[in-house]
């Protein structure tokens, strides 16, 4: 599945925000997502014909989502260092080939449960490598002030496709055969490739320094660990998605067990989830003017719990369709709030990696939930699993109520460019050598407690912008003298650190520097580990 979020705005009267590049990619992802939802319905229904055990059926959802947990961070690190457009074209070409082979095997009735799960895992892996790059594209396409409506419009596009794709899949499965949704999904990847070939973004400035891919992945993880607003978003997302995944993974079995159930009802339920989400996207702008992001998430969580309860307690098609619509309405309110919260919490330099961590939490929770609810449904029943999930949603919301979503909405995370140019290394030194920076402060006795508290807060800036270790020491012989030190995996990482300081970071730095009693301010020194 594709999602949009980076490129310079190009004004055009026919695009949603007057930006031609955004409109082009939005339409392409709409078509691609219709294919993805047809594929998901086809895979879920195909598995019920091959093996109707709840534990096996839910493995399809798990195989779709698990690759995001396993590979999203690697994909984010690659997206932050490679040309995103070329990366996306390559992945879509590979997926076109893989899905075409899958469609052929289904048409020839050669598919088995194990083969379906393996193909689903491979396709999910391709989607996992695409997602961070797509997510990192929207802020390039549009200015920050239109980010919220752009994400809402993107979510609307995904859910328009969710309304169309499943219904179309149900019709195709009944009228043409199970291979049809897969074949059309393969074709939609050609649409994405054509749009990416046509899109010509301005060339991004090339990074002159690169650490190893593992080092850059670790930097992304550290950034999220010490980015308070992002970490809060991740915690709340996990608490929601583990339980909300229940109706996604069990929906084929809900449809099969309903009165007059079948593939048509399954497609209709998926379509109504999409219709509810589209309705939610239209209502959301008005809702967010009255409610905070945190309150919107709470309201959406209650709606999801109510939908799960109805799905558990009724087998009538009308009640199930109403619950599906409510589930989609609630889903989009929560998902958009989390997405906006994550986007606004991340500076550009680490956006793909930060969003990759968010996707890991999202899809990891969905994969874990899918396996969990399948096992619970096998040991008890589908209704019991749904009721347990509804109860867990409410409990999770209560337990995480103090971890608020949307904390970064007022922060300025644009680059500040306030650090002076770093010194030049000696000719015999290498940019790969580990580095350490020390900052010497002179602090009056009356200000020591306030200074130490302010610097402890500021330490998170060092750690989220590349440092692997941070320390603060006070001189025994000269109590006015304080030394802050932070270590970096390489000198190249420190050079990049100069460009990573945001305006919010600069404000925190000014507060710390104000404690120094010297007119010249703190004294900065740089060190590298000598070569043997």
UniProtKB/TrEMBL annotation:
CDD domains in the record: MFS_MefA_like
Subcellular location: Cell membrane
Stretches assigned to the Major facilitator superfamily (MFS) profile domain: 21-407
Main location: membrane
Origin species: Roseibium denhamense
Claim: Protein biosynthesis is one of the keywords in the record: no
Stated name of the protein: Predicted arabinose efflux permease, MFS family
Membrane topology per record: Multi-pass membrane protein
Keyword Transmembrane helix part of the UniProt annotation: yes
Superkingdom classification of source: Bacteria
Keywords: Cell membrane, Membrane, Transmembrane, Transmembrane helix, Transport
Transmembrane segments: 21-39, 59-79, 86-108, 114-138, 150-173, 179-199, 231-250, 265-284, 296-315, 321-342, 354-376, 382-400
PROSITE patterns documented for this protein: MFS
């Amino acid at each position: 599945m594709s999602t949009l979020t980076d490129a310079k705005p190009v004004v055009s009267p026919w695009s949603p925000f007057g930006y031609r590049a955004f409109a082009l990619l939005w339409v392409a992802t709409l078509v691609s997502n219709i294919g993805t939802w047809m594929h998901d319905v086809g895979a879920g229904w195909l598995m019920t014909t091959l093996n109707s055990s709840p534990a096996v059926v839910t493995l399809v959802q798990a195989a779709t989502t698990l690759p995001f947990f396993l590979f999203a961070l690697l994909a984010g690190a690659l997206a932050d260092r490679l040309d995103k457009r070329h990366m996306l074209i390559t992945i879509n070409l590979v997926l076109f080939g893989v899905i075409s082979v899958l469609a052929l095997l289904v048409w020839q009735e050669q598919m088995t449960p194990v083969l379906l799960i393996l193909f689903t895992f491979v396709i999910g892996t391709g989607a996992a490598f695409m997602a961070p790059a797509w997510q990192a594209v929207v802020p390039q396409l549009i200015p920050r002030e239109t980010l919220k409506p752009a994400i809402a419009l993107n979510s609307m596009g995904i859910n328009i496709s969710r309304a169309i794709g499943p219904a179309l899949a149900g019709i195709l499965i009944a009228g043409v055969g199970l291979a049809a949704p897969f074949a059309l999904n393969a074709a939609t990847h050609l649409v994405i490739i054509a749009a990416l070939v046509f899109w010509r973004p301005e060339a991004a400035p090339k990074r002159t320094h690169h650490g190893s891919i593992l080092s850059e992945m670790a930097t992304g993880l550290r950034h999220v660990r010490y980015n308070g607003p992002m970490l809060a978003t991740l915690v709340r997302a996990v608490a929601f998605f583990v339980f909300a995944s229940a109706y996604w993974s069990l929906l084929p079995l809900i449809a099969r067990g309903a009165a007059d159930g079948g593939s048509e009802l399954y497609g209709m339920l998926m379509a109504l989830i999409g219709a509810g989400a589209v309705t939610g996207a239209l209502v959301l702008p008005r809702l967010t003017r009255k409610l905070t992001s945190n309150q919107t998430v709470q309201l959406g969580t209650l709606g999801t719990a109510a939908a799960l309860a109805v799905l558990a307690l009724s087998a009538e098609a009308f009640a199930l369709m109403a619950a599906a619509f409510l589930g989609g309405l609630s889903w989009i309110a929560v998902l958009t709030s989390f997405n906006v919260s994550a986007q606004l919490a991340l500076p550009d330099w680490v956006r793909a990696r930060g969003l990759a961590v968010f996707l890991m939490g999202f899809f990891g929770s969905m994969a874990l939930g899918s396996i969990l609810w399948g096992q619970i449904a096998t040991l008890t029943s589908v209704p019991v699993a749904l009721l347990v999930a509804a109860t867990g949603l409410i409990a999770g919301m209560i337990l995480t109520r103090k971890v608020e979503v949307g904390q970064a909405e007022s922060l300025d995370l644009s680059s500040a460019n306030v650090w002076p140019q770093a010194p030049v290394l000696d000719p015999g030194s290498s940019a790969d050598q580990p580095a350490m920076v020390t900052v010497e402060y002179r602090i009056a006795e009356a200000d020591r407690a306030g200074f130490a508290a302010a610097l402890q807060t500021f330490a998170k800036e060092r750690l989220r912008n590349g440092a692997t270790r941070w320390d603060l020491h006070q001189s025994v012989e000269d109590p006015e003298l304080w030394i802050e030190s932070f270590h970096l995996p390489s000198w190249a990482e420190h050079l990049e650190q100069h460009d990573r300081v945001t305006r919010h970071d600069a404000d925190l730095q000014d507060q710390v520097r104000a404690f120094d009693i010297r007119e010249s301010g703190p004294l900065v020194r740089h060190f590298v580990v000598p070569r043997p």
